[in-house]
Amino acid sequence: MNQRVDLVRNSLPSSNELVLETTEETEDGIVFRALTKRVPCCPACLQSRVSYHSHYVRRMRDLPWQGRRVVIHLKTRRFRWRNKECRRKIFAEQLPAVAAPNARETTRLCEILGLVGYALGGLPSERLLRRLGIKSSDDTVLRRVKSRRREARPIRVLSVDDWAWPKQQRYGTMLMDLERPEVIDLLPVRSADSFAEWLGLHPGVEVITRDRSTLYADGGRQGAPAAIQITDRYHLVSNLSEAVERDVQQLQVDARRQLAESEAAESTNGRLTLVEARRQRCRQARYQRYTAVHALHRQGQTQLQIAEKTGIDPETVSRWLNAREFPERRIRSDRRRDQALFLQSRQLGLQPSLTRTHYSAGRVAALLTMPPPKLSESQRRHLDAFLRFCPKAHGLRRLSLRFKDMLRWRSAKKLKNWIDSTTASGFPFVAQFASTLQLSITTPWSNGPIEGHINRLKAIKRQMYGRAGFELLKARVLPWDISEAA
After folding, report:
1. Is 13 exposed, middle or buried (0-12, 13-18, 19+ CB in 10 A)?
2. pTM for this predicted structure
């Protein structure tokens, strides 16, 4: 019998401060009646010269016992403080280890509600807790999730990136401490001013890793001018691939032009094929729209006004205005197009060319930037065929592999020579990428960890069907710490 009593007594929260009086079993569950054995102490002056005043009963829900609901009736005493110099005259004893002031749940039950709500959300947590013997509403669970407090910690290495509310419409900002590593804050907007304001409230940031966005670059210069800004290696390689892809497009245009000129010189009939004639008509119409956009821009029209007048997408208008020359249309790889050219040449009595003239620029750019040992046999054959068609791409491949080797081995000494070689190479888009390159490639920091947390944020948003407000979303994205639970 004594063992059973000890078992019940030890199951109480903070059993060294509570004394179990009686145990009752009711229709709703189990009721523990307990009182405290703690020495009373004034919360104002922390002295214990008191006399008994009165008592009242606090009813608090606790963790279930064998699937039965448990309620603790705690006899809480009031005391009269005899010190005339203290402003507190009457006070009730508090037990922080058992429950928070005015709480109707024990601290450990609040922690369980918060942890389950942090992992599952509101309604799923309510259903799971009901199966575990804990009756609580989804609103109560979400309040426990959102009410936890976090202490400020010094931050030295900060990673910043954006996340989308609705995709391509509205964006927020995620901030991460790379040294711990953990997400430290979410901002509901993406702007240079909000980022600068956050940095002003958190001094001590020495390193900022970011993508190539100018918003975070400007915000970092405003809020932490002494911090070193590092462009993430992932975005550098991604931007290099985009530059290589655009140069591949230009190389294909030049190679096709040279091939067409040579075939026209060899043939007696200089008529264009149906596909070539149609392509020239489309290019001429697109070039006329391009000149019209620049003419309206010289008249002082804004990009949105130009888009409305010409019926062109605003992003296309912006791309055309920022282009150094007329951008040729991207031609996708299509084997049927080469087959059609072959058949039309034979029908016109021309000597058909067996050379493939259309390649996917994205696929070729990926193969050009891939190290030779990682190429499969089919990829190697495809790349060799393109290099035979565009021999100039050998230089583009050498520049790409040299840059990736510098990033991998962090050879900052070779960076200047690579930039000089790229500028003189004759590849305009890769040269433009090199001219704006500002990176200390010896740093060990990267934006890779924050990309994973952004994917986790997307999963949390989908789990709540996109209906969660910013406060709840932030509470579930930031790491949970039991010691900081409310």
Report:
1. buried
2. 0.63
